[in-house]
Write a structure and sequence with these properties.
heterodimer, A: 452 residues, Cytochrome Bc1 Complex, Chain A, domain 1, 6-stranded mixed sheet, 12 strands, 17% strand, B: 417 residues, alpha+beta, 2 domains, 5-stranded mixed sheet, 10 strands, globular
Amino acid sequence: MTTTAVTPSDRRTVPALGKPRTPKLPSVGERTLDNGLRVLAVRRPGVPLAELRLRIPFAGPKGRGADTHVARAQLLGDTLLSGTPTRSASQVAADVQALGGQLSASTDADRLGFGASVLSSGLPGLLEILAEVLTGATYPKDEVVGERDRLVSELAIYRSQAGVVAREALLQRMYGDHPYGRDLPEAEAVEAVTAAQLRSLHARRVAPAGSVLVVVGDLTPARAIGLVEQALSGWTTQGEAVEAPPVPQAPQGAAVLLDRPGAVQTTLRLGGPAPSRTAPDYAAFTLANLVFGGYFSSRWVANIREDKGYTYSPHSSVEHPPAGSRVVVSADVATDVTAPAVLETLYELGRIATVPVGQDELDQARRYAIGSLALSTASQAGLASTLSLLAGAGLGVEWLRDHPRNLGTVTVEQVLAAGAQWLAPRRLTGVLVGDAATVAGPLSGVLDIEPA
Amino acid sequence: MTLDNGLRVVVSPDRSSPVVAVAVYYDVGIRSEPEGRTGFAHLFEHLMFQGSASLGKTEHFTYVQGSGGTLNGSTHLDYTNYFEVLPSNAAELAMFLEADRMRSVALTPENLENQVAVVQNEIRVNVLNRPYGGFPWIHMPPVLYQTFANAHNGYGDFVDLESATLQDAQGFFDRYYAPGNAVLTVAGDVDAAEILRLAERHFGDIPARDVPVRPDFAEPPPSGERRHVIEDRLAPTPAVAMAWRVPDPADLDAYLPYVVLAEVLTDGDAARLQDRLVLRDRAVTSVGGYLGVMGDPLDARNPTPLLLEVHHPEQTSVDTVTGAVDEELARLAGDGLTAGELERTVARMKARYLREIDPVLGRALNMSVFEQQRGRAELVNEVPALLESVTAEQVQAAAGTLGADRAVLEVRPGGAA
């Protein structure tokens, strides 16, 4: 090589990419145990750990029972680990810790999920504790009362955040009384929950049939499945695996403005339905969304951040709850530029819906979509989470091979069609949380604002 | 390997997945900002993404993401880092991009003005429009410290950000972004010899510049309790943070017992303060504890604190919280650890660390900071054994030092509707 003097004007040629190495599709061992639990296992050496993800269908009813279910489900997740017939809450915590493990439970509108990681040597012990919790969580009254008060305090803290307020309002607007319309429980509903109700909910719903357990770690699938079978075959609860009903048609076009007096930013969230991972236009939609605002190198980020400085982190993301995927367009914009930021957002949405993207924009988004999928499965934890999400959608590991292939063949015309179908501004609905006295007037010129 | 211009290069091959992480660490952070320019290190980090001799504005992003990768940068008290994770066929591309901005970042008035606005919006979303925004990382240092370097707001005052000039930026770059003040790490699906060759090719002709001598930021710990109250009009319930100075992290033998102590006190429902304050007394909503104001136990230099962070309802007074903490510390200092307590605490710390370094990026980031601050990238593999070498007596003794010489920061709800 030669060495030359360098000046700031020295422009060099950017090196071309080498030949890509296609990631190897993980080899997944699978068995459905006699109790109906589906177990997926992958050997992924690296660090001496095992990752577990257990997904139990846990959707609630529509309408009036929804709030009660969300409150009970949330508190059930908070108190599942608060005691078993042989261990107190702090004993469960200490025993998990001693294995080099962490174990947590949480619920959302679709499922009760357990996430765990543990030193490989501790996997049998962790599965034993998990089995005890699944078959014998005791929900001690003191713990339930304590966690109930704590949850009420935590809800007050969540709801003091503009992003949480906006998300709740957006989901409520999109889904009404469908279970997806309620993200967090009301404090009053939480305060009414009793330990007996949690035990009853557990008995009816924490069941193996319809549930999926994923294990990824430095051990063979056969050994992982054997350990799971040994530990969890006694989990025989006969319950109902309830999935969420189909989502209703969401309103389109208009938005609501929620007042946050004195706020220095307006929290903007637009949402609408999106195609599921198995829909024929899913790959085209993925790329349309990326070009619009789904990654940093998108038009929307270039416009309202890198050109105009209206915001820090605009992002258009796709979420896949099983009963209906959605797109959520998010930005927190400075109060005094709220209306211009909305205008530019509507402009970029309109552009992706009506004007063909450039071939170079498409190819760049395509490489990003394929590459970032590979990155997301390159660690034990990432692979476990991805497999669990796919299983929740009824998809297998082959999706990791097929989706990149589908991305590879998407055309400019298909991106335009997907943009028109899913991202046209009039197809979305919205919520803004901001200082109404300042932003309402200018906003009314660019957006239909309905009374909150 | 060290290039002739002083750039240190670290390579860690791992061929298991076709991905690579590239990281560059500059040995400059918030503590080195001049007075009147608070937030400048972070603002400058933003400017490093705005183009360089061979790359127009936004091209750094489009090259990385257009190759299938992701990227970011972050500003800490003692360093600023830039990193990419990409499919491994883009390893050379990422090294080129990092070299280009190390050689010749493009500083323009438009980009400066634009990024001041972006950073102000970052501060709005993370601090000004958020309950408990900046608690405790921005609000604790002025209570705990007395010198500007340690005490000032690392996100920056809006006035200071707006006062920043291109001359400031060029001066900062010339002084602190010298190749000899940086570490380059490449981890993942690569060949070590090839990476060293590429490092020479792309970084080798960046001219050497003087490497600034890092100032000694040491200052005496508080003598007695320093207390401060902030009103937060967005916060619905009170919170309190406590901070004590701990030994210089350069001396791992003296420092690591405090890292373990923070976990004994707060990691999970079996930890001392969780058990006492959350589960038994039901007095607080949450307790957290960690080393370093930015939660960075192994990448902050001296001076640095152990912090506790507690959210509690109005019915629980701050004195109840601090009193219970003092009691638990005294009990630990007097009676020591219970059987198995140290072992289980360290077992989880070890597992969490292994989980952190399983992805190539986690590995690259840890190796970079170990190389930069300790000249020992290989420490990445030694951390689990170091944690296991901490004794119960050391943790007990550490607890005994967390006394009245401390800082206490209260957040009180400020009556928002």
